[in-house]
């Protein structure tokens, strides 16, 4: 159901042809930048948001993970967008210690089914079992799959759990700018930290998140032909920047229209580096460090695992 989450404004994947995107990517100075693209061994990153436990990956999840390493990826944060998804994400993470981590939360689409009596108990136990973050949670007033008061209630309760457990929050927000800004600002004031994931919102919302001490994560949407907000890609300071696939959705150019996978985060990172005038390897090292720090990933790595 997360397929409905983050369509770019104005149309779904079918509206832009792969050829159109390829032409765009090859225009102007970018062609040269691509010709000199760094090798996968030089550019490292962590995918901060993938729905890797979904059934879309049941047939070939191990191959998908192998391709992450081959593309320079150092790991994947596997999102549990429901309690059931979190349980599956946990299994994937536990099979790949030090490379896959998991989260547990209740997506705003499902907030109508949120049970304030039992769900917080189950979320706390997921966090105690090793989930690195609360979420994804948040507000989605574009689809309104759940009534807005229930979205706010579920989000507020998850922010409270984050505060109580000291874990960061993975936040989904769409067309809910005023409420998101208010709730994230309030959360930041009491020390709650998190990330605005797959960010496509306003500069004002990004700035409010940054002022609250939060991070901003960009997905493959920024590689789409319709993406026009270059200034947003430069607005986020180095130490608050993350990249994500949000796979299996939102495959970046030049893979657009296919099932997305975490290995293709590389395209998003290279796009960010171009726009920011940054060295891709240096920017990759920065987003990797940011992801590790925000989610305290190093605390989750078993120290004796030799291949890590
Ligand atoms: Zn989302
Ligand atoms: Zn997601």
State the CATH class.
Answer: Alpha Beta
Identify every distinct bound molecule in the structure, by name, code or SMILES: zinc ion
Assembly annotation: single chain
Radius of gyration: 18 Å
What is the rounded distance between the termini?
34 Å
- Beta strand count: 8
- DSSP helical segment count: 11
* % residues in beta strands: 5-15%
What is the strand arrangement across the widest sheet? 4-5-6-7-8
Q: Which secondary-structure class do the elements indicate?
A: alpha/beta
User: What do the pLDDT scores average to?
Assistant: 88
CATH topology: TIM Barrel
* Regions with little confidence, pLDDT below 50 for 5+ residues: 1-35, 302-308
Main β-sheet: number of strands, strand sense, barrel status? 5 strands, parallel
**SSE succession:** HHEHEHEHEHEHEHEHEHH
CATH architecture: Alpha-Beta Barrel
Helices and strands, with pairings:
Elements: H1 18-25, H2 30-35, E1 45-50, H3 61-70, E2 73-78, H4 83-95, E3 100-102, H5 119-128, E4 134-140, H6 148-165, E5 169-174, H7 177-189, E6 194-196, H8 203-211, E7 215-218, H9 230-235, E8 241-243, H10 265-276, H11 280-294
Parallel strand pairs: 1-2, 2-3, 4-5, 5-6, 6-7, 7-8
Helix pairs in contact: 5-6, 7-8
